[in-house]
């Protein structure tokens, strides 16, 4: 588990350590995990179950929430060996652009990382 002061930034720019699923997993909080599953089900018009929520974060071995387990962005960045997508020469590829439309905070963070490279 990451220290409280450390941020785990996923390949796509989401801050794993700030994610409700990650927090519920790291604290073993089943109530928070259930609430997260319900919230995501409504937000994404999907049937997200409790078992789909448990996640240890994108960058480490361990449990992955259902989306992160099958994430094409994650697979691509891991295959290419990048810390996150900001380090990729194809930054803001079509796959990433589509995702970032839904998560503007992730785009802002990746842009900031890229500007510092």
How would you characterize this protein structure?
By secondary structure, the chain is an all-alpha fold. It has one domain (16-107). Helix content is 49%, strand content 0%. The protein has helices spanning 20-27, 30-43, 66-70, 72-80, 94-102, 104-115. The chain is globular, with a radius of gyration of 14 Å. The two termini are 27 Å apart.
Q: Concise description?
A:
This protein has helices spanning 20-27, 30-43, 66-70, 72-80, 94-102, 104-115. The chain has 117 residues and is an all-alpha fold.
Secondary structure elements and pairings:
Elements (H helix, E strand, L loop, with lengths): L19 H8 L2 H14 L22 H5 L1 H9 L13 H9 L1 H12 L2
Tell me the structural class.
mainly alpha
Total number of distinct structural domains: 1
Largest sheet: none
What is the global morphology? globular
Terminal CA distance? 27 Å
> What's the SSE pattern?
HHHHHH
Average the pLDDT over all residues and give the rounded result. 93
* Helicity level: 40-55%
Count the beta strands: 0
Q: Strand content of the residues, in percent?
A: under 5%
Count of runs of 4 or more consecutive helical residues: 6
Keywords:
mainly alpha; 117 residues; 6 helices
